Amino acid sequence: MSLLTVGSVAFDALETPFGKTDKIIGGAATYITLAASYFTKENNLVAVVGGDFPDEMISLLQDHGVNTEGLEIVQDGKTFFWSGKYHEDMNTRDTLVTELNVMEHFDPIIPESYQGTTFLMLGNTVPATQKLIIERMTTRPKLIMLDTMNLWMNIAMDDLKAVLKMVDLITINDEEARQLSGEYSLRKAAKKILEMGPTTLIIKKGEHGALLFQGDRIFFAPALPLEEVFDPTGAGDTFAGGFIGYLASTDDISFENMKRAIIYGSAMASFCVEKFGTERIVNLTQEEINARVQDFVNLSSFEIQ
Amino acid sequence: MSLLTVGSVAFDALETPFGKTDKIIGGAATYITLAASYFTKENNLVAVVGGDFPDEMISLLQDHGVNTEGLEIVQDGKTFFWSGKYHEDMNTRDTLVTELNVMEHFDPIIPESYQGTTFLMLGNTVPATQKLIIERMTTRPKLIMLDTMNLWMNIAMDDLKAVLKMVDLITINDEEARQLSGEYSLRKAAKKILEMGPTTLIIKKGEHGALLFQGDRIFFAPALPLEEVFDPTGAGDTFAGGFIGYLASTDDISFENMKRAIIYGSAMASFCVEKFGTERIVNLTQEEINARVQDFVNLSSFEIQ
């Protein structure tokens, strides 16, 4: 089934204890569509970049089967730029630079050919923009998934709550779940968030795995313990892309299939952190992905006699 | 098979955001033997208390089938006392009082009837004392498991490394694994620790579950997301007691069975934190334990098609 991803396509400059990069390709929608490309062939993108965005980066997305018809290029504008530096433990980072540039007035246009899409992935961006996108879909997608962050809870909580009423699934990290709900216990937090609109919640805990909540059901997916985390940038988006790409490819939104989708998403994220930026997720083989998923099976399976 | 636990039996005074206690029964060996009592009937204890330790507390242990022949009572001494206060997030705590009392000169005597025990659990205490206990066993147990803490890494690292060479399994938390190995990555940390002597390592991550390492094999057990964590005191010891109690009851130290044992240990720990001190783990039924283990199965099982 078809997937539409709306979100940022950007330049990132990263610094980790292992090294630093110049401007490389980044942005939520970049990671999401690249990760999803290993699962679904109908992989549509809506985003905006400036005239400074290199053609070869667009070709890279296209080579992965990403439909860039909805990628607006503002010739006299500059591409969204983010620069960050990770601390020694890789779990925390400082934002050094945020230049919104063309994202500041992003007015997402949905190409006619994208209408009727079955899966809609709203990458992390201004909640009002996420709401606008849903309103611009002529038929409601089968599943709408939304990613957001603490920034919008701080400065646009009302807008965020408005769009939450319109989506099926929200994905946030543990601290954001606590902030959004006002509850420290993740189980209580989940209960409150599921009363805000979505039927399903994914709480990402980074190196500690992810929790899936739906009604009274909970599923926990571990993260793979890695020898080295090289660069965590984009891991959450890669997770989301693998997750919704798998759902779209199977066209099955049952709880059991979402559990599988979380494992595929976690596998994709485990690749992402092994190298800088998108480097590791642009050249994966199906065999590598299957082997990594098997690692998750081995890691977490047990039998009670 | 028989289990011998050596460790502290103590008084604790606890303060959490939910309330505070006067002196209640605590200590590593208390939690370990109580948890193990649900699995193994040969549950032997070596510990020391003062003349101030109430008979009814000893009866409580005996009622759970704990053999207290090795519980030394120093009539003119005082029982080990620890007092702590938990922070709002329950993950960190301040020690308010530590009075070693009779633990300061603890000279563990192994009763003759305990010799030939198959499973030896060394609760967290002075590493030199742990070593002495192993040396006092006339036949080497089938499995020796050791718990320790950062304090001993700070003040008795050489003694700790000496006893590590003599044990099969060590259980520590993630920060302690990093301190002991000098590696931030838990996978690298595990590799180094397994070169120090033990063939098996369990890294406890509290609300984030536990990792089991043996050779190149890794197993991850989640923690159950709870509505409320009331008091985390003793959770790690209860985990260890459930784990080794299950191993002793099945007399099977294969990796597959250790995976099951970790789930049983995690289930016991999930009960422990629901009430103050040992309150929740002194009155469990087999049905409650089985239902809780089933919660873990439901939480973490998935099938890749």
From TrEMBL, chains A, B:
Organism: Dyadobacter chenwenxiniae
Keyword Iron listed: no
GO molecular function: kinase activity
Record keywords: Kinase, Transferase
Gene3D superfamilies according to UniProt: 3.40.1190.20
Pfam families (UniProt xref): PfkB
Keyword Transferase on entry: yes
Domain Carbohydrate kinase PfkB: 20-279
A GO cellular component annotation in the UniProt record: cytosol
Name this protein carries in UniProt: PfkB family carbohydrate kinase
InterPro entries xref list: Carboh/pur_kinase_PfkB_CS, PfkB_dom, Ribokinase-like
